[in-house]
Amino acid sequence: MVPLSHHLWRETVASHEVPRRVIHADLDAFFVSVEVALNPELKGKPVIVGGRPGGRGVVASASYEARAFGISAGMPIKTAERLCPKAVFIQGNFNRYIEASKKFMAILADFSPFLEPGGLDEAYLEVTGFESLHGTIKNMAEKIKKRVRDELNLPVSIGIAGCKVVAKVASGASKPNGLLEVPPGEDKVFLAPLPVGKLPGVGKKTEAVLKNLGVRTIGNLAEMPEDALKSRFGVYASYLWHMANADDDRPVEPPGEVKSVSRETTFAEDSSQIEFLAQTLWRLTEEVGADLRSYDRMARTVNLKLRYSDFTTITRSMTLKQGTDGDNDIYATGKALLERALTAIRMPVRLIGIGVSGFVPKSIQLDLLDNRPQRLSDLYRVIDNIRAKYGFEAIKTGKGIREDD
Ligand code: TTP
Ligand code: MG
Questions:
Q1: Other Cβ atoms closer than 10 A to 294
Q2: 359 and 305 share a domain?
Q3: Beta pairing partners, 261
Q4: Is the same domain home to 268 and 247?
Q5: pTM for this entry
Q6: Domain that holds residue 67
Q7: Residue pLDDT, tens place only, 31-43
Q8: pLDDT at residue 381 tops 90
Q9: Catalytic-labelled residue, pool 65, 122, 126, 181
């Protein structure tokens, strides 16, 4: 949850050369398993959650017994009925699944603070260096499985590897109710013989194109020259190629970690009028400032975005000496960037946007002779509170008001 300490910690670990370990945990037949936990009579039967029999819905989740009949997620319920008439069809109750999901995530969070949910029923855990707490990471995974089983009565499959993509492939390969650890250093060897469709991000279409190129396994993909993929898959090629090579240093990122805040608007008519553009900028800045303050952060970098009538889009940034969360500072910086841009490119503007990034912890410059910063900060907080209660339009400050408002 704390991004700074996360990085410090990763660096420390790296300097001791402990191999990276990532867990991917994914509940088996999630919706179905929640229903089975509530109604044990369903255990061992072909069960399908997804819509009324005879209806037009699709299968959301199928038990492994139902999968044996060729039933899979996304298939029309009617087809599933034809494949397995004796299956139990349940419409499902989304609230139940949300509840189960919360409890599942809470259990995982007991094992590592570095938790990244990937959906309701799956998550990554960064567990590098956690061996000493549990003996081995595999023991840790066993403990997770036991708690999920004892407390939620749900089966979960777990993959352990040196990066996210391989951990995810491993959990999938271990299903159902599995546990698979890819030993340190063996990520790439593990992936190589698997069908290329097992690589996350390779759907049916990509798989077909790859097949035409003679790529059947993940190893085949890893051996392709990256450039040969670029002509087929564009910017996506590089991502695919690196994943196939188990070259994945994406961190496990807790959710909701906001790194920037921005607002933009497209005009009904393009404009080159500085007054009009500046007024719009102020209005957007007020929203950006309110957002920023709601996160209790200050930002050092102000970003301006302009799209011109010919759709050329530019961004201009300026980094301040100190962080700010004040509308005035953000606006002044944005306006300076705007004036500079308008002088450089003389074309009507169709979109304007402003944002802040480079967050720093909140601090207020205490100036003994001038308490203006503190007063301004208090003022913004009062405005934010009123707006939170009554809507953004409840308070208008001078610069945003136009004659036709
Ligand atoms: P998955 O983890 O993809 O599927 P699953 O948990 O049912 O089966 P398993 O992991 O063992 O292969 O998705 C989790 C839940 O998300 C699933 O139970 C229901 C829901 N879901 C849909 O609603 N529609 C879909 O098309 C898919 C794939 C999943
Ligand atoms: Mg699942």
A1: 13
A2: yes
A3: 356
A4: no
A5: 0.66
A6: 30-96
A7: 999 999 999 999 9
A8: no
A9: 122
